[in-house]
Amino acid sequence: MFVLIVGAGRVGAAVARRALAEGHEVSVLDEDPLSHERLDEITGRGWEDAGGRFTVGTALEVDALEAAGIEEADVFIASTDGDNTNLTVAQIAQRRYGVKKVVCRVMDPARAAWYAEQGLHTISPTQHAIEMFARALDLAA
Amino acid sequence: MYVIVAGAGKVGWNLARELVDKGHEVTLLEVDRRRYLVVEEELEHAVQYGDATELWVLERAGIQRADLVIAVTGDDEDNMLVCQVAKEKYLCDRVIARVNNPRNLQHFKLLGIQPVVSATDLILRLIEHEVPRYGLVHLLALEEERLEIIELEVFPKAPADGRRVADVHLPEGSLIISVLRDGKGFVPTGETVIEAGDEILLVLDPGLEDAITPFFSPNGQR
C-alpha cells in the first residue's frame, strides 16, 4: 500500500516508521525540514535509506500534495498540529483525489465527533485521554 | 439581521463596525486575548473572546439563530471550517468566507463554501482592468448563474474592426452589451460600427472566451 502522511510530528513520524517497517510505501509531507531529521532519527539509518519519501511543503498546497504522491495514495493520514488543517486537507484527499482510506487527527473532541458523523475517520487523542483518565479514576461516563 | 463575524483583525473589526452602524445585530469572535481587549473597548458586548472554530464558542455566540456567518480570519483553514460547520451543522443559509491565498479558492469550492472574497484576487483584477494590454478582462463572474461579463479591446485589423455589430457573428451564448469609446460608454445597436481602440463589454456563458477573442484581436489571432 502507498501511505501518505501529512505532518510528521511525534505521531506522524512514528506511524510513518511503523508503516515502512510493515513493508508499505511511505511518503511524508511536512512544512518543517526539521521533521525530516526526526524521521532519520526514528529509523536509525536515514529515512530515504530506509526507503521512505519526504517532501517539504504546506498541507493545503495542491502542488506539494501532488509532489508527495497524493494521486497514487491508498491511505492518507492527516497528522499536522492544526485541527482545522487536518480536517480540510483530509476532505480534499477524500473528495478531490478519491483516496480510499483517509484518517485524520483532531484534538478537539467536539469537532472530531461531528466530522466523524459526516463520514470522516477522525481520531481524537484528547478524547482517548479523557476516557483513560476517567477509567483510572473509576468515573462513570 | 443577526451576523456572526469570525476574526477581529482589520477586516473583521471594520466589518463589524459597519454592520452595527447599519443597524444589524453583530457578534464578533476573536481568539487572541489582547486583540479582543482592544476591540472590546469600542464594540463592547458585540465582541466575544474565543476560538470561532470551536463549536461551543459558536453556540455561545448563538449560531443557531444567525442569519449570516462571515469568516474573515487570516487563516484559510479556519475560515473553511467555520463556514462548513455553520452551513452543514447549524444550517445557516448564508455564509461568506475570506480567502487569504487565492490558490485555496478551489478548496473552498470543493467544500461547498460560497461566496468567497479574495482581496488578492480583487486587486489582480483591478490591475488587469487598469492595464489594457492584457486584452481580455473578467469583470464579473456569477458562477451559480453561469454568467460572465468580460471586457475586450478591439485591435486594428481585427475581424470586428470597421464592422457593424449585426455583422459580427459571435458564438451563441454571447452578446455585446456596451462599447467604451473615447472614455465614454454606450449601449450599441445592430447598426453601431465597431472601431479599433474600442473596448467592448460582453455578457457570455462561461468558457466562450477563446471563441470570442479572435473577433477582436489582430488578424483574428487567439
Describe the structure.
The complex is a heterodimer of chains A (141) and B (222). In chain A, strands 3-2-1-4-5-6 form a 6-stranded parallel sheet, sandwiched between helices. Chain A is built from 6 helices and 6 strands; from the N terminus they run βαβαβαβαβαβα. Chain A is globular and about 50 Å long. Chain A is an alpha/beta fold. With 222 residues, chain B is of the alpha/beta class. Chain B is built from 7 helices and 11 strands. Chain B has helices spanning 10-21, 33-43, 55-60, 76-88, 105-110, 119-130, 209-212; strands at residues 2-6, 25-30, 47-49, 68-71, 94-98, 116-117, 136-142, 147-153, 174-181, 184-186, 199-204. In chain B, the strands form 2 sheets. A 6-stranded parallel sheet of chain B has the order 3-2-1-4-5-6, sandwiched between helices. The longest helix of chain B has 13 residues, at 76-88. The mean pLDDT of chain B is 91. The chains are: A alpha/beta (141), B alpha/beta (222). At the A-B interface, helix 4 and helix 5 of A face helix 4 and helix 5 of B.
Order the strands across the largest sheet of chain B as they lie in space: 3-2-1-4-5-6
Oligomer: heterodimer
Give the helix/strand class of chain A. alpha/beta
Unreliable stretches of chain A: none
List the helices and strands and how they pair.
The complex is a heterodimer of chains A (141) and B (222).
Chain A: E1 2-6, H1 10-21, E2 25-30, H2 34-43, E3 53-56, H3 62-67, E4 75-78, H4 83-95, E5 101-105, H5 109-117, E6 121-123, H6 125-136
Parallel strand pairs in A: 1-2, 1-4, 2-3, 4-5, 5-6
Chain B: E1 2-6, H1 10-21, E2 25-30, H2 33-43, E3 47-49, H3 55-60, E4 68-71, H4 76-88, E5 94-98, H5 105-110, E6 116-117, H6 119-130, E7 136-142, E8 147-153, E9 174-181, E10 184-186, E11 199-204, H7 209-212
Parallel strand pairs in B: 1-2, 1-4, 2-3, 4-5, 5-6
Antiparallel strand pairs in B: 7-8, 8-11, 9-10, 9-11
